[in-house]
Structures
1.
Amino acid sequence: MSYIVLHMDKFKKEAVRGIQSHNNRERESHSNPDIDYERSAHNYDLHEPAAENYAEAIQNRIDDLLLVKTVRKDAVHMCGLIVSSDSAFFEKLSPEDTRRFFEESKAFLTEFVGVKNVISAMVHMDEKTPHMHFLHVPVTPDNRLNANKIYTRESLKKLQTELPRHLQSRGFDLQRGVEQEPGAKKRHLNTREFKQQQEALHSLEKEAQAVSAELEQRQREESALQERLQSIERQAQEAEKVLAEQTDIPKASMLNFKSVIETAQEIIERQKKALAAKGIITAQNEKQQAEIQSLRETVTALNTKIGHLKNEMEEDRKRSGVSIRNLNSTNQNLLARLEETEKFFRWNTEAAMMRNDYEREQRQEAQRKAAEQKRLLEEIKQQERQQQADKERQAKELEQQKAAELERQRAEREQQRAQSLERRPRGMGMGR
């Protein structure tokens, strides 16, 4: 089962503009390579904006409060909640169900903060994992601007517990994240670390599922081989029984010699075929057993690896409360630094050359990594082709062995028939 991701951040007045720029994709980000701007058209806001921008909407809401005291310069003007889960969760959802997931989350959070305080509920579909940025003005029930009164340790725990319960009641298969232990040192995972952990876990789980499916197929093949082997053993037993019952075969005479010989040869031939097939099936069964054992060991190793990774993630969740460091809070600083850097490069020719060299090196490194990845992919494909060729060769060798055995048995029958004719008394059947 997947975990709910619910992360809260607080923003002061100077950060609001940067948050809006990021959410609405007003300019291309250089700090988040996971954004696919070709898919940005699929993003959508579940909240109808009440103003032209975030700052105006916040100020309008503050004005409605009719506060006696002036708002402090360092006051929190806006709070943000990121709602998401892992990629495996969204892969099982249709686009309609994905939208319904965020609509249900938005409805629950709106009831928690108050509909008048909601600014935006932007859903991003242009990154690896869909997520929603739910933004609101932190207004208390007694109409005060105070984020600390809204988001206490107790209220956050309650929110992180009740939101997944609400979504479960709406048919979504997920659960609450691991609660942080009291006194544990809190370490926020950045977005890239979190995504890497989720993707690694998902990849291992897929691999384990594939190996398990192959193991089940091998077990079905083993069962079929066992049934064939049992059938052949029954045939051999029947042939042996018939042969034993035919020990009193009458001596060949002029009337029954041929039929007696043919009957005996038929029984012997049946027994030989059964025993030969039994040997082939037994060899196949032994090979199948070895492959099944290898697959079982692979499954065990993968499950162990998955368990270790899950334990590591559980430890991270215990330390960080399964939270993602909000990119929006850092984006403002990055944008400011970027502007300063661009100004520096515009006025410094030498620095511009250094930047060009750096960008060229980065492009070359990216090309090298792409070539290495392509080479590895080709090696994997070559291995798969070799494995397929080996399987076809083995199947061909088995068919050849079967044909050779049948030819040998036919030659033996011909030889036995010829010998029996040579031993036949001359003149038999010639009356005077």
2.
Amino acid sequence: MKDYTKDKEFIKKFEAGTIDIAKMKMAEVEEGRKTIQMVIETGPRISTGGGFSGFFLWDTAFCCLWVRHTPDGVFPIHSSLDNFYKVSEKTGFINREYTAEGEPYWGEDHPISFAPPLLAWAELELYKSGKSDLERIKRVFPRLLKHHVLCKQRFQLPNGLYFGDGLGSGMDDISRWPTNYTEEQYAAGGIPLEEKHMTCKKALGSWECWLKGCAKRYYWNKQAVWIDFSCQMAFDALNLAEMADLLGEQDKATELRAEHAELAEKINQHCWNEEAGWYFDTCADGHILRYHLASAWALIAEIAPPERAKRVIDKLKDPEYFNRPIPFPALAKVDPEYEPETGYWRGAVWPSTNYMVIHGLLKYGEKEFAEDVARRYYNAYAALWEITGSVWENISCEQCDHIKPWSGENFCGWGAIAPIALPKEFGW
């Protein structure tokens, strides 16, 4: 594969082309906002991309990670984040997804409503890059802390770890449930997906077919510990602690770091499998032996002790697991449901999870491997951009010379991470 990272003119061209696409999609969203009746008045926002007119929590969080590398004033990133604070529930809970009108898709009492709590990470990274100031940190910190506490109240299990939902995790159709479970076992102890959990009519129209076709995936919630949500809550505690430091709230910072330490201990106790050298989701029957990138949140969240981190990284380096020609598929090659071409999260490579893994590797001193991964990933996206002129939602982990089914076109919500963030962060 051609190494585009050696061509500085191409890097500039790819970045400029991506920014143009992102601006085009944002203009489409703004045009659409003029024709609808708002439930809650929201401000301008960066488009997730594809055909989506609403806004997603974790997509927007990842937008921040590339927008911080763009010139000031081009993208309304603060407004994009503020929209979530405007439309949040009276309780302070922030839903995973809102319509263009500002209405939550999902009832907050169902785990499908949650999204990975990444807004504190996004706000902190904007601050570190000079895109925001201490006054903004002071303003958003109480809201983010309240959301964190509400996630604990709603989704924490008696063992101190967290349950969630397949769609809510952001990794929509990923294979994470036990392969031998029956329909009755899925339903037992779970929270059935029922109409009452959907708060707007659009949910029935846009998601009904998908949900009916994958019903058991959305029963599988309260029965299990989710490794990614548990790690994300620990990561959120770390980011909130850093915010508290900035604000001089030392007692709160200490409390949040203690929460992180306690979660790390519990994750290592309940989710680590010594024989496999990997972190797994767990259920009443023990570890659910499915290898997916949800487990890699243990790196960026600083959950894994050095000796365990090394074994996780060994799996990431292994071509039979995640180190495919284009790293890293969301679901490992060894999984029986691995589908690199037709799978959505079952074998595709995603900008969000790749970025997370790369920065997790950097935290554990794996700079050479992290840059190798970033370079191979960038080159794949660049090759496909040259062929199609578009930035894609996800790509195949096996080859980069074709459009993959189930990949949104002009998807800069997080697709822009590769052409914009990676060259800046690795100095190409």
